[in-house]
C-alpha cells in the first residue's frame, strides 16, 4: 500500500494552495525551519499522504521532482535485516523511515509513521 509521496517544491505555500484549495486535499501537518519559514506541508490523499517539501531525505539531485515512493511497513528492524540479507544499501533514515533505491535508481522509503497517531 502506498504510504506517501513526497514532492520537492519551490514554494510550499503556492503548492499547498494548488493541492489543498484547488484540488481539495485536506492539510494534516505543516513544518517550519529553524528560522520560522514554511518548509513542508502534508496533505491527506486517502489512503496515502502527499508531502510538499523544500528538501527531501536521501541522496539525489537538488532540483527537479526528486520524488520518493514510500510504502507502509510494520517494523523498520525487520526490514533492515531483510535488506541487509539481500545486499540492498540503506541510503538514509529517520526515526520512522528507511530510504533505499530500486534497481532503476528511484528513491523508495519504507515507513512505520502513522499519520493518524498525532
SSE order, as H and E? EHEEEEHEEE
Question: What would you call the shape?
Answer: globular
- Taking the alpha carbons of the first and last residues, their distance comes to 21 Å
Q: Biggest sheet: strands side by side, in what order?
A: 2-3-4-1-5-8-7-6
Going by helix content, strand content and strand pairing, the class is: alpha+beta
- Helicity level: 10-25%
Total strands: 8
Mean pLDDT over the full residue set: 87
* Tally of helical runs: 2
Low-pLDDT segments? none
Radius of gyration (Å) = 15 Å
* Beta-strand residue percentage: 35-45%
- Give a quick account of the main beta sheet: strands, pairing sense, barrel closure: 8 strands, mixed
What does this structure look like?
With 118 residues, the chain is of the alpha+beta class. The chain is built from 2 helices and 8 strands; from the N terminus they run βαββββαβββ. Strands 2-3-4-1-5-8-7-6 form an 8-stranded mixed β-sheet, covered by helices on one side. Strand 2 and strand 3 (38-45) form a beta hairpin. The two termini are 21 Å apart.
Amino acid at each position: 500500500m502506498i504510504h506517501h509521496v513526497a514532492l520537492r517544491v519551490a514554494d510550499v505555500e503556492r503548492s499547498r494552495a494548488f493541492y489543498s484549495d484547488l484540488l481539495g486535499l485536506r492539510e494534516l501537518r505543516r513544518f517550519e525551519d529553524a528560522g520560522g519559514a514554511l518548509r513542508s506541508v502534508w496533505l491527506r490523499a486517502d489512503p496515502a499522504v502527499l508531502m510538499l517539501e523544500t528538501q527531501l531525505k536521501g541522496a539525489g539531485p537538488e532540483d527537479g521532482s526528486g520524488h520518493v515512493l514510500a510504502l507502509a511497513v510494520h517494523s523498520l528492524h525487520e526490514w533492515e535485516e531483510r535488506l541487509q540479507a539481500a545486499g540492498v544499501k540503506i541510503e538514509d533514515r529517520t526515526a520512522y523511515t528507511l530510504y533505499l533505491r530500486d534497481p532503476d535508481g528511484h528513491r523508495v522509503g519504507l515507513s512505520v509513521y502513522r499519520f493518524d497517531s498525532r
